[in-house]
Amino acid sequence: MNELFKLSLTRHFVIAGPCALESFELARDTALELAAIAGELGLPIVFKSSFDKANRTSVTSFRGPGLSRGLEWLGRIREESGLPVITDIHLPEQAGPVGEVVDVLQIPAFLCRQTDLLVAAAQTGKIVNVKKGQFLAPWDMQPAVEKMRSVGHDKVWLTERGASFGYNNLVVDFRSLAIMKEFACPVVFDATHSVQIPGGLGSASGGRREFVPLLARAAAAAGCNGLFMEVHPDPDKALCDGPNSWPLRTTKTLLKELMAHWSVPHEC
């Protein structure tokens, strides 16, 4: 069994990093800081960033460096930081080359029902983290899991990231963490996208990052296996998802608090 997946079955872990690969230096420096935090706290951290954000609100929005350069950067970051790496894929043909570089392939929420994408990701043999669509109930994620298990793949994480509540708003039903655990998958809570205001700025999404600690604490108390956070050295200047990203400088403090919540026994 994949060692990272085995770890995720028995220990709490964190997925963290800038939304998109803005530059190699920014991503590497963020990963090195996260690696230092992981070592100090004894908390497994997976570095996250995207080579292409294909679902941005506007056609003029920053998307990232693209597949070839992005994978080069992610490979170097993985080697220099010592952290495992996760990144998004949007097309089935991306699964193979991405799976050769990273430890975890992520399926964006908007694409969580795309059969060919799920199967292609599963066939790499790497962990696949599927983000629950904002438009789905937690029990609707079971078919996504079954699609991957149909090709003999069982290394699956499921991530809760809020559900659409009217226009430009998300709410979190924390029952979904327990419900999705029934599918025998580690369950992750996305504390930063859950405070997003989709399309709230007209040509971009807004967010209320001040609520990230509140929701993260609730998810830890509810028994999530892992926590997802987009972090950035200067969120107000981030080229992607800045309003809902968490400042890197206060990440260690928040994670220490969450570890205290995780240390309390949970029934679900």
Automatic annotation (TrEMBL):
Keywords: Cytoplasm, Lipopolysaccharide biosynthesis, Transferase. It is an enzyme of class 2 (transferase). It is found in: Cytoplasm. GO terms for molecular function: 3-deoxy-8-phosphooctulonate synthase activity. Coiled coil: none annotated. It holds the Pfam family DAHP_synth_1. Its EC number is 2.5.1.55. Pathway: Carbohydrate biosynthesis; 3-deoxy-D-manno-octulosonate biosynthesis; 3-deoxy-D-manno-octulosonate from D-ribulose 5-phosphate: step 2/3; Bacterial outer membrane biogenesis; lipopolysaccharide biosynthesis. Residues 11-255 form the DAHP synthetase I/KDSA domain. GO terms for cellular component: cytoplasm. It catalyses: D-arabinose 5-phosphate + phosphoenolpyruvate + H2O = 3-deoxy-alpha-D-manno-2-octulosonate-8-phosphate + phosphate. HAMAP family: KDO8P_synth (MF_00056). PANTHER family: PHOSPHO-2-DEHYDRO-3-DEOXYHEPTONATE ALDOLASE. Belongs to the KdsA family. This is 2-dehydro-3-deoxyphosphooctonate aldolase. The lineage of its organism: Bacteria, Pseudomonadati, Thermodesulfobacteriota, Desulfovibrionia, Desulfovibrionales. The gene is kdsA.
